[in-house]
Write a structure and sequence with these properties.
The structure holds three protein chains of three kinds.
Chain A (H helix, E strand, L loop, with lengths): L10 H21 L14 H14 L1 H4 L16 H10 L21 H14 L18 H11 L1 H4 L6 E2 L5 E2 L7 H10 L14 H17 L12 H24 L4
Antiparallel strand pairs in A: 1-2
Chain B lengths: L37 H4 L1 H32 L5 H32 L6 E4 L6 H18 L5 H13 L2 H5 L11 H6 L12 E3 L16 E6 L8 H8 L1 E5 L19 E5 L11 E3 L4 E3 L6 E3 L5 E4 L8 E2 L1 E3 L5 E3 L16
Antiparallel strand pairs in B: 2-3, 3-4, 4-5, 5-10, 6-7, 7-8, 8-9, 11-12
Chain C lengths: L11 H13 L1 H8 L3 E2 L7 H20 L8 E3 L11 E3 H11 L4 H28 L8 H23 L4 H15 L5 H9 L8 H31 L3 E2 L8 E6 H26 L5 H4 L15 H12 L3 E2 L2 E2 L1 E6 L2 E6 H4 L2 H22 L7 E2 L6 H20 L2 H7 L4 H40 L1 E8 L5 E6 L3 H8 L19 H14 L8 H25 L1
Parallel strand pairs in C: 4-10
Antiparallel strand pairs in C: 1-5, 2-3, 6-7, 8-9, 11-12
Classes of the chains: A mainly alpha, B alpha+beta, C mainly alpha.
Chain lengths: 262, 347, 555
C-alpha cells in the first residue's frame, strides 16, 4: 500500500527513530539533573540583556514588577525562560491589552529583535526553557503517527483532536492550533502559557514534541479528505448543516415539486 | 365489545365526522375552475417542455459518465488531495445522475401530464354491517373452539403460555462473557489494578516518572506499570487512568487522613469522571480546575477535586502515592473508593 | 372456474404481465392503487424524504457491510493514512479506515450513509412536526401517530448504533457515556452494563452486538413499522388542507398513475441527488482525526450526532449538587447504602416527558375537546392556537436541551463563558417553554384576527387614495369566493366547562378537563360567518364596491 504522504521513508526508519528516541530518553533520565536544562540555542550578549531590561521596564514592569519579581497583576518571570517570552510576546499575547480571563493572541507589538532582547533579559534572571533551535522543530525528522498518539493523550482534550480548539471554564479557552508556527507550539508545550500545563522534557520528550509538531503540520497540510471540514467541530456543525442547508434544499425542491407551472 | 345496537342500516350512528354542515358558515364554493398551463394551450411550449425533459435525462447520463471518470481516471489514488478530488467528483457525478432523472421526471409530470385535480370519496373505515359480520364470525370461532365452555383448557393454556417465554429471558444471563457471579460483577467495579508499589508510568509510552520530573504546573497522563501485560488492557485502562499534577502544597486544603497521599505537592487523581465516565483531562494550571469536556463537570484540585460546577455528584477519587528508593513515583495502594461513574451498589 | 373467452395477450410484455396477473391477481391491485388520489402539498413530502433516505441508507449500508469488520480484536493500522500508520487500534476501526482510504469510493459511500442518516432522522422529525401542527394525528390516525413516534425512536436507535461502530475516539467516549448512564439505573444498572458490554467496559463484545442491532434488528423493525405506517395511510387515505372543494368526505389531488407516481418517483432521485451533493462537498465524521478509541484520551467538543444531542444536553444542564447537597443520594438501607444517582436520572425525565407527551397527545387533545369525530381536514397551525402553543413549547424545550449539548462550542464561538451559557440555558429550560407557549398562542390568535380582517374588509390592494378632505387611505379589494373560503372554513374549539355525569356528580377528572379546556380555549377567534360579512359590507359597501372594481381592472 502506498503512503499518503509523498515523502517515502525506509520502512525501518520509524523503528530506527523510535530506538533513537528511546535511547535519548534513556540518556535524559540518566542525566536527569534538571528537567528544564536550558538548551542554549542562542547565546545572548550582555548588551541584549541590557536593552531587554530597558524594554522590560518600559513595557512590562507595570504588571510583572521592576525586577520581574511579579505583582498582583502579573506573575514573576524569574525562571520562565526565553521560550516563554518568545511565545508570549511573539504571538502578541503580551503585553496584554487588558486584564481578562486569559491573554489572547493578537498582532504582535514587538519586532523579532526586540522580542529577542526581552527574552535575553528574562533568560538572564534564572534558568528556564530556551527558544528551540531549528533542529528541534525539524519536521522532516518527525513521526506524525507517534506525534498523533501523544497529541491525543496530552493535547486533544483541550485543543480538539483536529486541533480546532475548545472551551475551558469561565470564558477561558484552548485556541485552535492549526495556524500556529512550529516554534510557538514547541514553546507552548515547554512553558505552559496561561492555564496550559507545562509539558517539560521529561513529560513529553523533545523528540515527542517534534513528532507532535510533525503531526499537526501534516494534518494541517493535507486538509480534509471528504470535502469541506466544517471547522473540524464534529457532530454539531454536521447537524447544523443538515438542519439548515440540507433541509433548505429539500424544502425548495418540495415547493417546486408541488407548485403549478404557469 | 361495546354496545352499538343503536345503529340502523341507513344511519350507522357509530362514526361522527367533523362536518361543515352548520348553518352559520360559508357555503363551499367547490373546486376553483381549472387554469390551463402554457403547455396545454401552446404546442410550442409543450415541445419546449419535452426538450427540457430530454435535456435533463441527458444531464443524468453525463453525470453517470462523470462518476466513471472519477472512479477510473482518478483511479486508485494514494494522495490526500486525490481522495478529496475523487470524492467530490463521485458526489457531483452521482448528484447529476440522480437529479437529472428526478428533476426530469418531475418536470415531465408537471408540464406534460394532466394537471386536473380529481376528487375521490373517502370510504367509511369500518362500516357497521361489516362489524356485525365480524363479531358474529368471531363469536362462531370462539364457540367452535369451546374455550369458554372448557375453562380448564383455557386456564392451563394461559399458565403454559405465560411461563414458556421466561427461559428466553434467562438465556441472556451469559451475555456477560466473563462468567462472573453477581457479586463479582459488582466487586470488580470497586477495584483497579493499582496496588502497593505499582509504578506510575506515562501514557502511552510506559516510562516511569521520577518525582523530580514533575515540576509545578505540569500535568502527566499516567497509567499503572504493566498495563499492557494484563489480559484486557483496555478494561484495566478504563478504570486505572490517572492524572498526575504538581502544585504548591500551600495551595491545597488537605484533609487529615490524606496528609500522606501526596508527595511534595505531587497529587494523583482518577481521570475518569464521576458523572458518566468521560476522561476529565482538561487541567488549568493556574486556576487548578479540572474540566470534563463531555458535560463540563469542574473539579477543584486545591479542594481534593471537589465538584465546583456541572453535573458530577462526587469528587474525583485520589490515588495515594509516594516515591520508591530510586525516586520513582509509586502508588501506596489502590484507590480507597470505586472510580468512575456511580452505581447502585457503590455505597 | 372456466371462463367463456380466455384472454390471450399479444405482446411479450403482455404475456409476462398476464402470467404474473393470473398468479397473484395484479389487476385487482392496479385497480385499487392505479388511480388512487393523493393530495399535493409541499409539507406532505417530508415522510417521503424519510422513506427515501431510508432506502439510500439500505443501499449504501449494504455496500459498507461488504468491507466493514465489526471485530474489536487488536490490530496495527498499516493502511494509507500516514498519521495513523503503526497505531494500535481495533479491527473495526482499521476496516473503517480502509473503507475511507483504500476502497475506491468507500469514503463517498460512508459519507452518503452518514449524511442520509442525519437527513433521515431530520426528515422523520419534520414530518412529525408537520403532522402535529396540522392536527393530522386526530381520529382515525392516532395509531399511525404512535407508529410514527416508534419510528422516530427506532431511527434514533439506528443512528446511535451506527455512530458507535467505527470504534473511534469520539464514538467510544459516546459509548462510555451510555455506560455511565446505564450504571446509574437503580438496582439493575450495574448488571445491564455488564450484560451489554459482555463484562467490563469497554470489553470486546459491544461493537459486534451493536453491529447486529444496526444492520439487522433495528432496520427490520423500521421496515416493519414503515409497512404498518404505509398500510394505514392507504386505509385512512391522506389528509388534506381545508379549501374550496375539499371536504371531510373526499380527497382532492392527483392520481397515482401517472402524475403522483412520477412526482414521488422522481423525488426519490432528487433526494438521492441532494444527499450525493452534500456527501461530495462536505466531510462527515472524519474518524482519522479522532483516532482509535482508548479510555484515556478525549477530544474537546465531544458530542453525539444531532438526534441524541438533546439527551446529552439534559445531562449537561443538570447540576450535580444543589448547594452542598449532592444529588447522588445514598439511601440508608439496613443492609448498607445504595446510591440513587439523581444527577444522571433526573435529566432522563424531560426526555421521558417529551416522548410520553408526544405519544399521548392525540388522546390528551381528544379528552380535553371531547371531540370524537373523524378528521380528514387539516388545521392551519394558526387555527388551533392551543395546539400550536403546546407544540412550540415542546420544540423550545427540546431546543434548549439541544443547545446545551453544544454549550462548549457556543462559548468558544460567541466568546462567552462556558459556565454562563450553562446558567442561562438552565433558566431557559424552565422559562423557554412557558414563554414559547404564550408567544406562539398570541401570534396564532393575532394571525387569526388578521384573517378575519381580510375576510371582512378585503385585502390591501396597494392603492393609496386621497379623499377630497386630504386624508389618505388604502383601498381594500374583496376576496374571491375561493380565497375567502380558505380563510373562513375552519373550526374553532370553545371552552367546554366540566359537566355533571348522569348522577349529577362532577368527577375530579371532569373538573380537571374543564379547567384545561378553559385554559386552552378561553381566548379564541371564531371564523367569520356570512352574516358578519354582510354586516361588514353594509358598513363599508361603497368603498368595497369601488375597490373591487379597481382590482378587477388591475388584473
Amino acid at each position: 500500500m502506498k503512503a499518503l504522504s509523498q515523502r517515502r521513508r525506509h520502512p525501518l526508519a520509524a523503528v530506527a527513530l523510535l530506538l533513537m528516541g528511546l535511547l535519548i530518553t534513556g540518556g535524559l533520565y540518566a542525566a536527569a539533573g534538571s528537567v528544564n536544562e536550558a538548551k542554549a540555542a542562542t547565546t545572548y550578549s550582555a548588551s541584549d540583556v541590557d536593552e531587554g531590561n530597558k524594554l522590560f521596564v518600559a513595557n512590562c514592569a507595570t504588571c510583572h514588577g521592576m525586577n520581574a519579581e511579579g505583582t498582583t497583576d502579573g506573575p514573576s518571570l524569574v525562571g520562565v525562560g526565553a521560550a516563554a517570552v518568545d511565545f508570549q510576546v511573539g504571538t502578541g499575547r503580551m503585553p496584554m491589552q487588558m486584564q481578562g480571563p486569559q491573554a489572547q493572541a493578537k498582532p504582535k507589538q514587538f519586532g523579532d529583535e526586540e522580542t529577542q532582547k526581552l527574552a535575553a533579559y528574562v533568560a538572564s534572571l534564572g534558568a528556564g526553557p530556551a527558544v528551540p533551535d531549528d533542529e528541534a522543530v525539524d519536521t522532516t525528522e518527525g513521526n506524525s503517527a507517534a506525534g498523533g498518539t501523544v497529541f491525543r493523550v496530552n493535547c486533544a482534550m483541550c485543543h480538539n483532536a483536529g486541533a480546532a480548539g475548545g472551551a475551558l471554564t469561565r470564558g477561558k479557552f484552548a485556541p485552535g492550533i492549526s495556524d500556529v508556527s512550529s516554534k510557538h507550539i514547541y514553546e507552548a508545550m515547554a512553558t505552559g502559557p496561561q492555564n496550559m500545563p507545562v509539558f517539560n522534557d521529561s513529560n513529553i520528550t523533545p523528540e515527542e514534541k517534534r513528532d507532535v509538531i510533525t503531526f499537526l503540520q501534516e494534518i494541517d497540510a493535507q486538509g480534509s479528505a471528504g470535502g469541506a471540514s466544517l471547522g473540524s467541530l464534529g457532530p454539531v456543525s454536521e447537524g447544523l448543516l443538515i438542519w439548515t442547508g440540507g433541509l433548505a434544499i429539500v424544502i425548495a425542491f418540495t415547493i417546486w415539486l408541488t407548485s403549478r407551472p404557469s | 365489545m361495546g354496545d352499538h345496537s343503536h345503529g340502523s342500516p341507513n344511519d350507522p350512528g357509530t362514526v361522527a365526522k367533523a362536518g361543515q354542515g352548520s348553518v352559520e358558515s360559508f357555503q363551499d364554493p367547490g373546486l376553483p375552475p381549472h387554469r390551463p398551463r402554457l403547455a396545454d394551450v401552446d404546442p410550442r411550449a409543450a415541445k419546449r417542455a419535452e426538450r427540457q425533459v430530454t435535456l435533463l435525462f441527458v444531464v443524468s447520463i453525463l453525470g453517470t459518465a462523470l462518476f466513471f471518470v472519477a472512479y477510473f481516471v482518478v483511479g486508485r489514488t494514494s494522495t490526500f488531495s486525490g481522495i478529496r478530488l475523487q470524492n467530490t467528483l463521485l458526489g457531483l457525478g452521482t448528484a447529476f445522475a440522480m437529479m437529472g432523472i428526478g428533476v426530469g421526471i418531475v418536470h415531465w409530470a408537471k408540464t406534460l401530464m394532466p394537471d386536473h385535480e380529481i376528487t375521490e370519496m373517502r370510504h367509511e373505515i369500518r362500516p357497521e354491517a361489516e362489524r356485525q359480520e365480524a363479531e358474529a364470525m368471531i363469536g362462531d370461532i370462539l364457540d367452535e373452539t369451546g374455550i369458554k365452555r372448557r375453562p380448564l383448557i383455557r386456564n392451563s393454556l394461559i399458565a403454559a403460555v405465560a411461563l414458556a417465554p421466561i427461559p428466553a429471558i434467562f438465556m441472556f444471563r451469559d451475555l456477560d462473557r466473563t462468567g462472573a457471579t453477581a457479586n463479582e460483577i459488582v466487586d470488580r467495579l470497586r477495584y483497579t489494578m493499582w496496588d502497593k508499589d505499582t509504578k506510575l508510568v506515562r501514557d502511552p509510552s510506559g516510562t516511569p516518572i521520577k518525582a523530580s520530573d514533575v515540576q509545578i504546573g505540569s500535568a502527566f497522563h499516567v497509567i499503572p506499570e504493566g498495563l499492557d501485560d494484563t489480559e484486557d488492557p483496555l478494561n484495566e485502562k478504563a478504570k486505572a487512568v490517572v492524572l498526575l499534577m504538581r502544585l504548591d502544597p500551600r495551595e491545597m486544603e488537605i484533609s487529615p487522613e490524606r496528609e500522606t497521599w501526596h508527595h511534595d505537592g505531587i497529587v494523583a487523581y482518577s481521570k475518569i469522571c464521576t458523572h458518566v465516565g468521560c476522561p476529565v483531562a482538561l487541567y488549568e494550571q493556574q486556576t487548578h480546575h479540572l474540566l470534563c469536556p463531555c458535560h463540563q463537570s469542574t473539579f477543584d484540585l486545591t479542594q481534593e477535586c471537589k465538584v465546583i460546577f456541572g453535573p458530577a455528584g462526587h469528587a474525583l477519587p485520589q490515588l495515594p502515592i509516594t516515591v520508591d528508593s530510586e525516586g520513582y513515583l509509586v502508588a501506596q495502594s489502590d484507590f480507597h473508593e470505586p472510580v468512575g461513574p456511580s452505581y447502585w451498589e457503590r455505597g | 372456474m372456466s371462463s367463456t373467452t380466455e384472454y390471450r395477450p399479444k405482446t411479450s410484455t403482455g404475456k409476462i404481465a398476464n402470467f404474473v396477473d393470473t398468479r397473484v391477481g395484479g389487476s385487482a391491485m392496479v385497480k385499487e392503487f392505479g388511480r388512487k388520489i393523493f393530495p399535493d402539498h409541499w409539507s406532505f413530502m417530508f415522510g417521503e424524504v424519510a422513506l427515501y433516505t431510508f432506502v439510500i441508507l439500505l443501499i449504501s449500508g449494504t455496500f459498507l457491510t461488504f468491507f466493514f469488520d465489526p471485530s474489536m480484536a487488536h490490530t496495527v493500522y498499516e493502511g494509507s493514512y500516514n498519521p495513523l500508520k503503526g497505531v494500535h487500534m481495533s479491527v473495526a476501526m482499521a476496516s473503517t479506515m480502509d473503507i475511507s482510504f483504500d476502497v475506491r469510493g468507500g469514503l463517498f459511500m460512508r459519507q452518503v450513509h452518514h449524511w442520509s442518516a442525519l437527513l433521515f432522522v431530520a426528515a422523520v422529525s419534520v414530518h412529525m412536526l408537520r403532522v402535529f401542527f396540522t392536527g393530522a394525528f386526530r381520529k382515525p390516525r392516532e395509531l399511525n401517530w404512535v407508529v410514527g413516534g416508534t419510528l422516530l425512536i427506532l431511527a434514533m436507535a439506528a443512528g446511535f448504533t451506527g455512530y458507535s461502530l467505527p470504534d473511534d475516539l469520539l464514538s467510544g467516549n459516546g459509548l462510555r457515556i451510555i455506560d455511565g448512564v446505564i450504571k446509574a439505573l437503580p438496582v439493575v444498572g450495574t448488571f445491564i452494563s455488564a450484560f451489554l458490554f459482555g463484562g467490563e467496559f469497554p470489553g470486546t463484545a459491544i461493537i459486534g452486538r451493536l453491529y447486529m442491532m444496526h444492520i439487522m434488528l433495528v432496520p427490520a423493525l423500521i421496515l416493519l413499522m414503515i409497512g404498518i405506517h404505509l398500510f394505514m395511510v392507504v386505509v385512512h387515505k391522506h389528509t388534506q388542507y381545508r379549501g374550496p372543494g375539499r371536504t371531510n368526505d373526499n380527497v382532492v389531488g392527483f392520481p397515482v398513475g401517472p402524475v403522483y407516481a412520477a412526482k414521488a418517483g422522481g423525488f426519490f432521485f432528487i433526494v438521492f441527488g441532494i444527499v450525493a451533493l452534500i456527501s461530495g462537498f462536505f466531510q462527515i465524521n472524519p474518524i482519522w482525526n479522532y483516532g482509535p478509541y482508548d479510555p484515556s484520551p478525549v477530544s474537546a467538543g465531544t458530542q453525539p450526532d444531532w438526534y441524541i444531542g438533546w439527551v446529552d444536553g439534559a445531562l449537561r444542564l443538570m447540576p450535580g449538587y444543589l448547594g452542598n447537597f449532592s444529588l447522588e443520594w445514598i439511601i440508608p438501607f439496613p443492609w448498607g447504602g445504595n446510591n440513587l444517582i439523581l444527577n444522571v436520572l433526573i435529566p432522563m425525565i424531560p426526555a421521558a416527558i417529551l416522548i410520553g407527551a408526544m405519544f399521548a397527545w392525540p388522546w390528551i387533545e381528544r379528552w380535553v375537546t371531547k371531540d370524537d369525530r373523524e378528521h380528514h381536514l387539516l388545521d392551519r397551525p394558526r387555527n388551533a392556537p392551543f395546539r400550536t402553543g403546546v407544540g412550540v413549547a415542546g420544540v423550545i424545550w427540546y431546543c434548549v436541551m439541544w443547545c446545551a449539548a453544544s454549550s462548549d462550542l457556543i462559548a468558544t464561538h460567541f466568546h462567552v463563558s462556558l459556565n454562563d451559557v450553562t446558567y442561562w440555558l438552565r433558566v431557559l429550560f424552565f422559562l423557554g417553554p412557558i414563554l414559547g407557549f404564550i408567544v406562539a398562542r398570541r401570534i396564532a390568535l393575532a394571525l387569526q384576527r388578521k384573517d378575519r380582517e381580510i375576510v371582512l374588509h378585503g385585502r390591501e390592494a396597494g392603492v393609496i387614495q386621497m379623499s377630497p378632505e386630504g386624508g389618505f387611505s388604502e383601498q381594500h379589494a374583496e376576496l374571491d369566493v375561493y380565497k375567502r373560503y380558505k380563510l373562513v372554513a375552519f373550526e374553532s374549539h370553545e371552552v367546554m366547562p366540566a359537566e355533571a355525569d348522569s348522577t349529577g356528580h362532577v368527577s375530579r377528572g371532569e373538573k380537571a378537563r374543564g379547567a384545561v379546556s378553559k385554559f386552552f380555549f378561553e381566548d379564541r377567534v371564531a371564523p367569520v360567518t356570512p352574516s358578519e360579512l354582510e354586516a361588514a359590507h353594509g358598513h363599508h359597501a361603497p368603498a368595497i364596491e369601488e375597490s373591487s372594481e379597481d382590482a378587477s381592472i388591475d388584473r
